[in-house]
Amino acid sequence: MRKKIVAGNWKMNKSLPEALELVGAIKTLSYSNEVQLIVVPPFLYAKTLVDELSGTQVSVGVQNCAKQEKGAFTGEVSASMIQSVGVDYVIIGHSERRAYFSENNQDLALKVDLALANHLTPIYCCGEIIEERNSGNYFEVVKSQISEGIFHLSATQIQKCIIAYEPVWAIGTGVTATPEQAQEMHQFIRNLLKEKYGEADASSISILYGGSCNPQNAKELFALPDVDGGLIGGASLVAEDFIAIANSF
Ligand code: 13P
Q: Which of 49, 105, 160, 223 could form a disulfide with 148 if both were Cys (CB 3.0 to 4.6 A apart)?
């Protein structure tokens, strides 16, 4: 049975008081204990939220990590630092990192290695831009992102990863992938995993959908055979919406 996961990527939103208010509200709401809930705040609040959420089922992730182990890299935060404050997850290769910070699959492969070496679970993101969808080569794009970013991992390592498919044209646009589009790509990704690692490993890896997922459409998306949960942006900033999504399995 694959893990059901709902992760809230807050991106560059919320002050510290607002962050505390949001997790305070999340703590008061109930959801199935079969769902792994993850909040992914900006680095600055990660340790505070780890403390705030200790003793609950909610885990904390961060949105990025350095591709270097340590040293003179001003402004960067290493995987070992992240692990040292009690964070469990790290988003790697979000399309905003790829687009605005020029991160490529080779950089991301290094980050995935450092995350795993430091006992963090990578949430590895992939997804095509609108031009790639319209030109029909979106499978090729996602295949390169997956094979260049994570296919150097051993079977034991890949099982420790989460994959998130986020079509870039669906992020923050209100245009969600249709259930057919989501299932088609998730199945494609699972088949890539099958070809590389075999059926058993492929079927144990959670693949999340992200892109304008909200309490209205989550149920339909989460019911798809290869969709194991969501990576949520905007709707994760409102406690009631985030928990309503977690209750959509
Ligand atoms: P939205 O849910 O705001 O579309 O963002 C999705 C996303 O990028 C999560 O990482």
A: 105
